[in-house]
């Protein structure tokens, strides 16, 4: 009987399992898919000679994460690589804002748009140097992060107090207008804000865009050498070296609750897996409270709040094998691992407005990844392994391009949307489509089929908007990994601090479990769990 059962072998589940194993607990990780990793996996599905990441690719939050740093994954085979430049935002006129790990290079890029904007970027970077360490501590520790918050409050006061706090909650459009005269700095902030489901006019989008931009300035947007799955493999190897095990092809169908406590799980095959001390769930919030735990074990208010849970937008992704480098009109974009494609902040606002109106955008904002530029092992010399993703509504009311995309995501819908994505790339890189050796389409239902946590193609575990963050994540009054069922802990991106590959939700859940004691009488309940329930009823 393991001390803990972890549901889901995504990065948070594997981090949680490692933290528990480090404390001497025996751990079983049960994963529905045939391989571990969740949204951190790669394959050769587009072309045998090319490595393509199935989901996530660039990991600035992983590079900054004290959680992952403490696991010393480099000792288990993980290696990182960076593109020559971090991020580019080209425009159709050939100009380009460039984010580079060298501060002077970034500043020169912004001065090309408006003299003096380089110094404005340096001022924002100075704020990061003062606030960054304590901000990251507050981000990666359980809510409320008392000690980190106290230090951060002191730093905020030194950096301007309420004025600085105001800056961080500004919409990113307004922040860019206040700080920069030209488009370059505004584009870097706004494009980074739209890594989440935040419109340029959303409160807090300025702080998020600044955070992501400064992470890139400091750490780059690194990638695991060999493919994103190398990060998963390192986590799994480390866990096995400490006696934990990962069992794939094991879909958990029920969290078993007895005596008011979680005592184990039951799989879709009917197997009972008891847990001596805790069950940790690296699953989406609606899946945990709407399916895995029977409603009679949950407070009515939680079930009511769950009705108001908001997903982030659906995602549509295309992977390519390219016969050569992308022919960017703006040469600077060829140096960057990540490229943002929207012709100005107004086009970003237009894109966000179409999503809000449940329209498929006609000029989708693209995050474009040049993986061979970031890691030369991804494809043969002289070629490029690339991808792009964009967002679409979960429920589609209209197609802004009037091409008939309905949201059924049948073959017709998928091909029309993939062509639209490629046409958007062509605006900034004429001749791109002529280089395509092969492509793969990952529509929202495909993403969900490959990872059930990506419900409808949502990749963030729930919206990043302020009304579902901090004490409101995943529902009001929570903000911590403990659930209303003793012995059950939420270890997914549905918990604070949310999405991104950094391991904090998993580590927070593991630490919360370690602080709980095994109650009297639990052993008997767990022994009962091992008896097969021939009637199929919940126990």
Please name the CATH architecture of the domain at 4-32 and 249-308 and 461-529: 3-Layer(bba) Sandwich
Percentage of residues in helical conformation: 25-40%
Mean pLDDT: 93
Largest beta-sheet characterization: 7 strands, mixed
- As a whole number of angstroms, the C-alpha radius of gyration is 23 Å
Low-confidence stretches: 532-539
Structural class: alpha/beta
| Global shape | globular
How far apart are the termini? Answer: 19 Å
The helix count comes to: 19
Identify the CATH homologous superfamily of the domain at 4-32 and 249-308 and 461-529.
Answer: FAD/NAD(P)-binding domain
Q: How big a fraction of the residues is strand?
A: 15-25%
Written description of the protein model:
With 539 residues, the chain is α/β, with parallel strands linked by helices. The protein is built from 19 helices and 21 strands. Mean pLDDT is 93; it is low at 532-539. α1 runs parallel beside α18 (504-514), α4 (103-111) crosses α5 (117-140) and α5 packs antiparallel against α6 (146-158). Among the domains are: 4-32 and 249-308 and 461-529, FAD/NAD(P)-binding domain (3-Layer(bba) Sandwich); 102-219, no CATH class. Helices cover 37% and strands 18% of the residues. It is globular. The protein starts with a strand and ends in a 10-residue tail after the last helix. The strands form six sheets. A seven-stranded mixed sheet has the order 7-6-15-17-18-14-20, sandwiched between helices. Strands 9-2-1-13-21 form a five-stranded parallel sheet, covered by helices on one side. It has a three-stranded antiparallel sheet with strand order 10-11-12. A hairpin with a 4-residue loop joins β11 and β12 (272-274).
């Amino acid at each position: 009987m393991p001390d803990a059962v972890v549901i889901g072998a995504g990065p948070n589940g594997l981090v949680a399992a490692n933290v528990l194993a480090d404390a001497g607990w025996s751990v079983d990780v049960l994963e529905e898919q045939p391989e571990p990793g969740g949204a951190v996996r790669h394959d050769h599905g587009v072309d045998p000679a090319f490595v393509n990441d199935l989901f996530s690719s660039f990991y600035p939050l992983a590079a900054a994460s004290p959680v992952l740093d403490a696991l010393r994954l480099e000792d288990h085979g993980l290696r990182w690589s960076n593109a020559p430049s971090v991020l580019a935002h080209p425009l159709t006129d050939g100009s380009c804002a460039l984010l580079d790990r060298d501060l002077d290079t970034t500043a020169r890029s912004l001065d090309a748009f408006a003299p003096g904007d380089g110094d404005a970027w340096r001022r924002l970077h100075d704020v990061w140097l003062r606030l960054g360490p304590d901000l990251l501590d507050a981000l990666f520790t359980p809510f409320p992060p008392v000690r980190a918050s106290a230090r951060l409050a002191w730093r905020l006061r030194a950096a301007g107090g309420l004025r600085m706090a105001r800056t961080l909650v500004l919409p990113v459009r307004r922040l860019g207008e206040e700080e920069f005269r030209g488009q370059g700095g505004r584009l870097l902030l706004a494009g980074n804000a739209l890594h989440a489901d935040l419109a340029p006019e959303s409160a807090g989008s300025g702080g998020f865009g600044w955070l992501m931009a400064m992470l890139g300035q400091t750490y780059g947007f690194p990638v695991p050498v060999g493919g994103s799955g190398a990060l998963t493999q390192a986590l799994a190897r480390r866990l096995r070296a400490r006696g934990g095990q990962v069992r794939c092809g094991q879909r958990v169908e029920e969290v078993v609750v007895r005596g008011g406590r979680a005592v184990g799980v039951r799989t879709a095959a009917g197997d009972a897996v008891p847990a001596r001390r805790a069950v940790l769930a690296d699953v989406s919030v609606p899946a945990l409270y709407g399916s895995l735990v029977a409603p009679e074990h949950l407070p009515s208010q939680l079930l009511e709040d769950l009705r108001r849970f908001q997903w982030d937008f659906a995602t549509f992704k295309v992977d390519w094998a390219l016969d050569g480098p992308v022919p960017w009109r703006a040469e600077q974009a060829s140096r960057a691992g990540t490229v943002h494609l929207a012709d100005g902040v107004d086009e970003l606002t237009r894109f966000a407005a179409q999503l809000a109106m449940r329209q498929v955008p006609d000029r989708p904002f693209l995050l474009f990844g040049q993986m061979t530029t970031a890691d030369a092992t991804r494809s043969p010399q002289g070629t490029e392994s690339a991808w792009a993703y964009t967002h679409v509504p979960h429920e589609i009311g209209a197609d802004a391009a009037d091409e008939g995309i309905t949201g059924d995501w049948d073959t017709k819908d998928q091909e029309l949307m993939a062509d639209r994505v490629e046409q958007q790339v062509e605006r900034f890189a004429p001749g791109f489509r002529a280089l395509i050796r092969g492509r793969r389409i990952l529509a929202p239902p495909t993403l969900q089929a490959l990872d059930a946590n990506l419900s409808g193609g949502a990749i963030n575990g729930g919206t990043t908007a302020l009304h579902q963050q901090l004490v409101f994540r995943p529902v009001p009054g929570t903000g911590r990994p403990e659930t209303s069922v003793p012995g059950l802990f939420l270890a997914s991106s549905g918990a604070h601090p949310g999405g991104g590959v950094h391991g904090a939700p998993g580590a927070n859940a593991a630490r919360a479990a370690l602080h709980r004691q095994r109650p009297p009488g639990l052993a008997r309940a767990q022994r009962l769990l091992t008896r097969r329930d021939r009637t199929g009823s919940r126990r």
